[in-house]
Every structure is written in C-alpha cells, then in structure tokens.
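Schema walkthrough. Field components (list of strings):
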Amino acid sequence: MVSASPVSGTHVAPSAARESLRMQPRSRFAIWRSSDHVRLVLIWLALLAVPFIAPNAYVVSLANLALINLILIASLNLLMGFGGQISLGQAGFFGLGAYASGVLNVKWGVSAWLGLPAAALIAGVAAFVIGLPTLRLRGHYLSMATLGWNAILVVFFNQFVSLTGGPNGLLGVKPFAFFGIALDTEQRAFPVVWLASLLIMLAILNLLHSRIGRALRAVATNELGADAIGIDSFGIKLMCFTVSAALAGIAGSLYVHVNQYASPDTFGISISILLIVMVALGGSGTYWGPCLGALIYTAVPQLLLNYEDAELMLFGLGMLVVLIVFPGGLAGVPDALRRRFASWRHP
Amino acid sequence: MQNTAVVLQLLVAGIGTGSIYALIALGFNVVFKSTGAMNFAQGEWVVMGGMISAAVFASASSVGLACLLAVILVAIFGVLCERLVIWPLRRPTALLITLVSIGLAICTRGFVMLTLGKKPVGYPGFSGTATISLGGATLQAQTLWVVGLTLAFLLVMHVFFERTMLGKALRAAAADREAAAIVGVKVETTILISFGIAAFAGALAGAIITPLTLASYDQGAMFGFKGFSAAMLGGIGGLPGAVVGGLVLGLLEVFGSFYISSDFKDAIAFAILLFILFVRPSGLLGRPDIVKV
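Field assembly_structure (string):
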C-alpha cells in the first residue's frame, strides 16, 4: 500500500492488535481462547477476597475505583486499541452516564438499577449521533468531534445548576439497594462493581472473538482492505464507538452511585486525554492492557501523594519513560523480554 | 452609533483573542505537518512564554526584553524536548508521538509549577496600560500589539516557508518524507526545527497575551485545546488555515459571550465549530487528503 501523504491521520493500526490477529492453528486457538476466559474468572474470584483482607475501608474504596476505571479504560481500549479510532471525549461519556443516572435518581427518584441501563442507553445514543457524520471520514474528525463534545458537556454540567448542582457537584445520589438493604458502604458496594466489571470484561472478550470482533480488527488494520472483502467498515466503527460509549456510561453510573456524588472536574477533556495515555501505558490493543492501565491510573496518584508539588512532574516523567522504553505498553513487556531472551539463546 | 461602537469593540477583542489562537494553531500545524501527530504540549509552551517573561521582567524591568528572552528560551526548550523525548523513539508513529507529547505536557506543567510557582503572574503591556479611543470604542493598546506582532510573525513565517531553503526543506519533508530524504533533506532535523518553531509561536502567544489575561501554570491545557480546535477549523496543515481558524474561533467566543451568554461561551464556540466540521470536514480552507492505495 502506497500512501501519497505521510500525514494520513489517526488511522492507526496498533502493532499489538495486528499481532493478536496473526493466524493461529485452529486447535491451539480454542485452547488459548478458553484459557483467557479461565484466567479472567480466576482473577476475579481472587479479587473477591479484597473486602475481607483489606486493612480498612479506604483500600476497598480504591479497589472499587480501580474496577470502575477498568471498565472505563477497557471501553476506550475497545475503540482505540482494537478499533483504531481515537476519542478525546471518553470522560465526557463517563460523565454523561454519571449525570444521567445521578440526576434521574436525585430529581425523579429512579432507582440505581434502572439508572444503570439508562446511563448506557443515553451515552450510547449520544455516541451514535456523533459517530454518524464523523466516522464516515478518516483522519482526526472523530478526535475533534469528541473533544468539542466533551467541552460542551463540561459547560452543561457546570451551568445547569438546577439540574446538575453546577460546580459544587451533584449531591444526594442514592446508592444501589439490594432487597431493601442500601449498599452504602465501600464493602457493600464492592460486589456490584465486581460483578459489573466481570460481566463487561467477559462481554468484551466474547465480542473480540466473535465475527464482529475480527471485522473490527480488520477495519483497524486496513480499512480499504476490509471494505474490499465485504466488511461494512463504517457500520463496524459506528457500532464499536457506540458500544464503547455505552460501557463508559455504565462506568459513570457505577461511579455516581458508589460515591453518591459527582463533580464536573471528574469528566473534563484532560481526564479524557489521561485515559488515552492509560490505555497506551497498559498496552493498547491487548486484552489485559486495561487492567494494568487501571491499576496505574488508580494507584500511582496515591503513591505520589507524599511528593506533593513534585507529583505532577514525576507522573509525567514516569509516563514518558514507559512510553519511550516500552512503546507497546506494559502488557507487552513479558513477550518483549521473552523474545529478547530467545534471540540471545539462538542468535 | 452606540451599537457600532459595541460591535467595533467586540470585533477588536475577537481579533485579539483570535490572533493568539492563530499563533497556537500555527505551532500545532507545523508539528502536525512534520510528524502527523497532535502535539498536546503546545499549550504548555504558551504558559511558559508568559511565566518566564514575568520572571525576567521582575529583575530586568524591560517588558520587550523580557518577552524576547522568554520566547527564545522557550524555543530552545522546545528543541531540547524534541531531542530528549521524540528523537529517542525507535518507531515514531503519529500515535506514539501524540502520546509522548501528552506526557511531555504533564511534565512541563509540573516543571513550570515547581520552578515558577503556582500564582498567576502578569506584567504591564508594551505601551504600559495605555488605551486608545476609536469610533466610540475604548481599546487597550496591548490588543493592537497582539494583532500587530501576530501579523509580523505570520509574515516572517510565510517568507520562511516560501523563500528560504530551510523552509522549503520543511515543506518537502512534510509533503513526502521519503522523497525529501532522497533529495538530501535531513528529515529528523526538520522535525527538530518544527518543534522549535512551534515552541516559538506558542511562547510568543503567551508573552503578548499575559499583560491582558495573566498567566498561570494550569492554563496550558485550555490554550492547547483552543489551538487544536482553531487548527481543525481552518483545515489542519496550512498557514492561512491557522489564521482563519483562529480568527473565527476568537470572534465566535467574543460575540457569543456578549450576545448570548458568557457562561456558555465555550459551548457556543464548540457547537458552531462542530457544525462547521460536519458540513465541511476538511476545514474552512483545507482540501481533503487524497490517499492513493
């Protein structure tokens, strides 16, 4: 393929995604697939112990946050890592989900369990409407449109004070309730977040191994090639963007009901950009990358709390070092090391 | 008569703000052309320009000298950044450079906060705090300086890209990296120079707007987004595109906040911007990229 222009835009074909597309023998493929499922369930079963072994409620709250961040980062990874599209508005969809679910609950008393699908629906529909005109084109259009969308949303979160509480935030959001028991402590909220993240990670895994998932990766690798073999690349991109936003909306709904509060600062463009970096640090276009990304995103600010003013700079420096040394993200590190080790043994 | 004065006042303010966005968009475009990446550090250089000017002014007490020194320092900083974080990349894809520039932006913001402080800083304009009356409107002299210096810089850039060997080499490398390399253009050097120019343009914007708005370490992201939007609006890549995009965005903001609502200023500007992009995806002046397969 010859490209007449060196600046062919954000049409990225992530190397990691390409790698996982590599043809594998059918029998081995089945084993590999089942083992990813098994691994996921085993890890989540182990996570169940967190509320019991955590020394205090604060650690549990961090675990909740990490799992919500995981949904958010995994949703962006689906779009960016596997779909090859860059959204600068993922925090906006996160916020839309949070405010949709929160406002429905505070103003009209809609229960959190109904708010959750409502948040997914609203965020998904919004993405569908934005995707319709922008995804037909290649280049930076989706980035620009989502950036503008996020900026507009933040203004609305801040200015519709009667509905959203404005800059002070949305107060008085009710937690999830289970047969009349309010899940209002971190320990009680944990199972909800745990189950939601498990189901979403399973859904993403199944999606990636479905016909649609393969089509998605084909579109990300070479859109024209995908079109040529009969894939509706616009439809696939639109579906991926919609699903990704709906998942972010679910993360938002979980966030607002677990914290019982939302503030516009949590959903700004800077956060959207940080999320992109977290996808890349974890390993863009790898299934397990978002887990590492969510861990970094949740834990590193806590670790840096002691450094006060230097925090920002250390965070940036760490980011730069990882990106320069491991451009494929941390999830690719074991493979890279193994390959290097192998090349030492068989030069 | 009253009405014309108001419109004139808004027009000048819009052109002033638009000039700043145009400068940032120009920096954005230059890096985009040479690397294909969105440079998120662009806005931080604007802040750096303003903050260093203020720091130098505190000890040198000459505004012009302080700004000149600051702009040169930031341009050197931009070049250094390219050598330190972009150049070492083994496979510099557009996406990776974009991501690295985000890290660079966060790092720069932290660095500026640590070395130059958290407090907003300012200094008097180039003609003090003088104001000019024109057709019933009262204009700040600094606004005219902003417009004039932006125009001068754009002219210099135009001559640089059209007339000098180095400028032509930059354009050649942007048009076709491999072909440019074959005829002897050092592509890596053109990336270095584009970072220098981008940092210079950003710092210039920061140095000339600070007397009107003050500068503080956390404004960089906002400047960056506005510059990016202006670049997209004008049609990413070209010099005229950056100017038109910047001016349109500046005027939209100023008129929108006066006639509709200042609270919704950003929302109005971005909504119109999205509308324009939906109607004309390649920007106001851009031509669609034709990619041969």
